[in-house]
Fold this protein.
Amino acid sequence: MRDVNEAIAESIERGGGGLDVPGLLARVRAAGAGSEPPPAPAPDLDGLTATVANAAGRHLPAGRLDPDADFFDAGGTSVGAVELIAELEGELGIEVDLDEVFADARPRSLARRWLPLLGTAATPPPTTEAPGSTPATPPGAPTPAPGAEAAELPTPGTSSAVTESPGAPAGTMAVPDASPAAPGTPSAMAVSNAALAAPGMPSAATEPPGTPAGSMAVPDAAPAAPGTPSGDARALRVPAAGPGAVPDGTPAGAAPSSAASEAARTARAAAPGTGAGTAPARTPAHRPLPVPARRTPPALPGGGHRADGDRYSRARPEDLEQILADLALADRLPFTDVPEPVPPRRVLLTGATGFLGSHMLLDLLRHSDAHVYCLVRAEDEAAATARLGEQLRGYRLPWSSEVRRRITVLPGDIRRPRLGLTDERWHTLAHELDSVVGVAAAVDFLRGYQSLRASNVLGALTLAELAATGRPKPLHHISSIAVFNEVGITSMGEDDPLAHIDRLVSGYDQSKWAAEVALRRARDHGLVVTALRPGGIGGHTKTGAYNAQDLSSGLISAFGRFRTVPAFRHLNAAPVDWVSRVAVAAICEPDAWGFDYNLTGVPNTLDDVVRDMALGGMHVRVQDWDEWRTATLARLQAEPVPELGFLSRVLQSPTALKLCEATLKGPAAEAARTDALVAALGLAPAARYDAQDQLKTFEKLAGDGLARLPHKDDQPYLWFSETTEGTVGPVGATAATPCSMALTLSIASMYQLVKERRVDVTGQVTCSALHPEPLTVERGDLWVRPEEGIPQQHGMRHQLLRYRLRLRDADGGRWWLEGRKYARARRDLWRQTRALTVEIGREGEAASLLGEVVVPADSYVRDQIDGIRVDPRLTGQEKRAAKLTWLAWFGLEMGRGLVAPFARAAADLLDLRRTPTPTEHNR
């Protein structure tokens, strides 16, 4: 062996021999390749599917998930999805996009998308190649065609994943079937993805001269399998495919398999720098097969690429294909006649356990004589009834024997064929019902169309089938203003065109659009369909009940909690009690059937929201949308609020952000037909959902930890000074010790006045009988007309104001002070409004000092009227409005307090019960 090596070396020195440098490098590489560990087995689709399904089952109530079942339909939550992704990332060693799970949460679909990433993770690192060098061909292998390099092929005896279909025209590529490959054979998806060059990596292969645009060169393999003819480089044209394209070789009318569709989509992606429609070339044999990096933007015509943010500006092609297929289902509905135009007496209601559906159930019972059949998802009737009652009580709605008498609870599921009912029950309802109301929907702004279609689209079509079967009956469908959620749309009228479906990115928007468009097709079959489109559904104006998962509630909570607002055009929101009442009115009025209605109320502008919150003492700062989103996410991470967890996930999801952007930047919804219906039926007209209507809801939000009410530590909304002078003395003795108070009275919001009639107090108390130095007010409160001015004891002194101060002296001693201003039926009204009777004592002890202090007459007007100060952040007009509001409210309360003792004195003087009754006479 040594002699051979010496001979080779001498031959190289003389410039001769049978080996050149490339040949020598080839032998070195071949020797090195023999010592490398065997390659990892190709990932298996079924095995990965089982891994995902098992992991998902651990986050579900049932403990298991079928490979083709949706994670969310099986009871999964958004929080569970986040935990599932973290678990799978650690188990599989890949990074996963959360939006992929929400887009389609079936284990098999997820495995199909993640299989290429998993295959790349198992691939050994690439071997460095000398610049300009050409990969060597092993001895005995045929020479590749000019311009082409050697590529890997499957094990001898197996077929290539990308082959030319027999009889296919030149320039086409056949996509392999999705059937499982034989052991040892790479899966079709792994090979097709491996054929793509990583972005930014120069392609090792080059196009042969004369290759037409839009083709890719597929070089021969080396070495060839025995009996396999040596193939020259072939130019396989990859046809441009739209959303509905079917791979070549698929029979006409047959839908491509999901694996084939995935392979075709992968093959259509172009590497940076390639021409339009040109697929990237294969890599040399000694290199690993690269896979495009995660979140790589797809190629655009002309070789460009989308910006990263534009990736989410269009719907996914697979979603569009599914939407078109779902719309075609409406053409299978039976034809029906026009229903009898009378108010309904037997109504099927879905979604009665939801926020809007529960209020509509009560309104149907209150404003009609109908008997309501409530479809509730549960195992049996007892569980369904218990769930319905629990939800009604949770929304502060009655659950009485009268309610139970007028309803029939049906256990079922909107996602199942025939609503999960027996054939007998289905046919009975089809012939007995005279109205169908569809409120049930999956409201989740993170899930994709594939995950939501069963509830929001197929469920609506099932209700349409029930309405068209048997006795003719109208279908009243609760749609959503989300059907207009296209960024840049110019109008949202009741009869305006809906958004372009390919520009709706959120799965929720897509599903509501698909359901409404499918039901429009059902109208062509004679079905009377009424589309009712709420916008944001706010809390109840009387009870304060709200929907914690509603986007409007989440945004309002964030506005009030963090005191910031994103710049927006309009908020199309209305309280749930108004939306429910108008919807039920349309259901019960036959002349209103068959039209589209926008139940959005009067939209709020940015100025309206800022002014309402300022009036409530919540001065907010307006920020750009991106700035507000970043700051809010940072605050939610620094101060986690479990109830706002869904908002945090929405603000981190690119698809959900498109929904938010369209919602906040869209125009005001128009509702001319709805306004005419409301006026014709004599209902309460639409009004702006302002601070007064939101008061109860905001209190409940604050009580549940979602919002924060104004606090006395916040910047005061309005304040003024009050000084008093007088004397105090020991209990039972003459008051001879001088005592004075220099106080600042302030309010944090008008809500504080309306709700509590309380004013915050700070300042100092100077009294030598307590301490030589002034005492500081640590906490002080003043109540206006406490207990409605009722006297403490039987007598003629009615309470006007009550002071309660907690004091601290310079030595740390603590004291308390109670003071009251009384109204009497006397002529010295001016002094009654200024004189304050005080009691002072040490903390935890009885009063030791009594006396009276009075506001000087010359300082009253100067300090408490002319000296009113308002938050400088308000505009001049808002400052004047704040002063006038305070003076009007305080003047009215003081006037009522001063009149009360005179009214009581007049009643005593008149002695209205002077004539005794027989009962009194007998006593």
